[in-house]
């Protein structure tokens, strides 16, 4: 193939089977944590907030690749991804989750404690405020951005300005990974034209008052800006992975 266009599967049925096969051939997760995921999916109205178990596996793999021991998460919901980061760093590591919904944070805290997970600390409040007040003793190895999409550029800007080269007081260490979820929004960020069937489906959902707040024009604009800021920053090397809802992975060089 001359270009790098990846048209891998002829239809959704084949893509589903390939995805299942791929997940089955990817590292395993503790049953207690996958059971917690199943509980969220079965019982929670907003269960689509949480990452899939397959994406979770990729997170463990990435964190272990860089030997991460300290992870910062922006947007924790009921704590499934925080539990995954906890598993990735092991008992000697720590996870800090920023969440502004007290009910979600309370469920996350109690459920994780029930799972025997004691190395996750949730900080309540708007993440942009928490980011400006955090002073970790040792900088984080990885940050996962998964909160309100319209603030992604703000989160990036705060993370970078609070991680200045040579500073003894920084949020991210040199070489840290910046992982951000939902940066493609079912492809609408890259192709917002009517030729993309998801655009029409999204417009219909928005007209019915469903999901509009998640895929608003402002979210799309800000996700585009975030992807631009990440890829054009001289301080970051990026890999935009077109899997799931689009995962931006960046490595902070300095
Ligand atoms: C997509 S969910 C996170 C899902 C979680 N990372 C997981 O995979 O299990 C986004 C979360 O971000 C929280 N959130 C949204 N805006 C926020 C803000 N400005 N500050 C802090 N948390 C916010 C929401 O309450 C929600 O729980």
Automatic annotation (TrEMBL):
Keyword Ribosomal protein: no
Stated name of the protein: O-methyltransferase
Family statement drawn from the similarity comment of this UniProt entry: Belongs to the class I-like SAM-binding methyltransferase superfamily. Cation-dependent O-methyltransferase family.
Organism name: Coniochaeta pulveracea
Alphabetized GO MF terms: O-methyltransferase activity; S-adenosylmethionine-dependent methyltransferase activity
Keyword Transcription belongs to the record: no
Protein keywords: Methyltransferase, S-adenosyl-L-methionine, Transferase
Classification via SUPFAM superfamilies: S-adenosyl-L-methionine-dependent methyltransferases
Biased composition annotated in UniProt, kind: Basic and acidic residues: 197-213
GO biological process assignments: methylation
Taxonomy, superkingdom: Eukaryota
Chain residue ranges for the region called Disordered: 194-213
């Amino acid at each position: 193939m001359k270009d790098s266009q990846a048209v891998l599967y002829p239809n959704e049925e084949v893509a589903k089977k390939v995805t299942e096969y791929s997940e089955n051939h990817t590292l395993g997760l503790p049953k207690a944590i996958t059971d917690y995921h199943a509980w969220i999916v079965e019982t929670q109205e907003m269960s689509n907030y949480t990452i899939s178990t397959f994406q979770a596996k990729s997170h463990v793999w990435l964190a272990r690749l860089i030997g991460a021991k300290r992870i910062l998460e922006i947007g924790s919901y009921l704590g499934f991804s925080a539990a995954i980061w906890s598993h990735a760093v092991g008992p000697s590591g720590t996870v800090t989750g920023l969440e502004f919904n007290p009910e979600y944070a309370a469920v996350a805290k109690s459920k994780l404690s029930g799972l025997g997970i004691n190395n996750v600390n949730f900080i309540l409040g708007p993440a942009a405020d928490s980011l400006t007040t955090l002073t970790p003793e040792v900088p984080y190895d990885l940050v996962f951005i998964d909160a309100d999409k319209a603030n992604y550029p703000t989160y990036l800007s705060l993370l970078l300005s609070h991680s200045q080269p040579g500073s003894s007081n920084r949020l991210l260490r040199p070489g840290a990974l910046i992982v951000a979820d939902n940066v493609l929004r079912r492809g609408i960020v890259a192709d917002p034209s009517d030729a993309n069937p998801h655009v029409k489906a999204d417009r219909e959902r928005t007209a019915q008052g469903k999901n509009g707040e998640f895929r608003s024009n402002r979210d799309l604009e800000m996700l585009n800006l975030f992807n631009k800021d990440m890829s054009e920053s001289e301080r970051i090397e990026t890999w935009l992975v077109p899997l799931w809802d689009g995962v931006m992975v960046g490595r902070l060089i300095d």
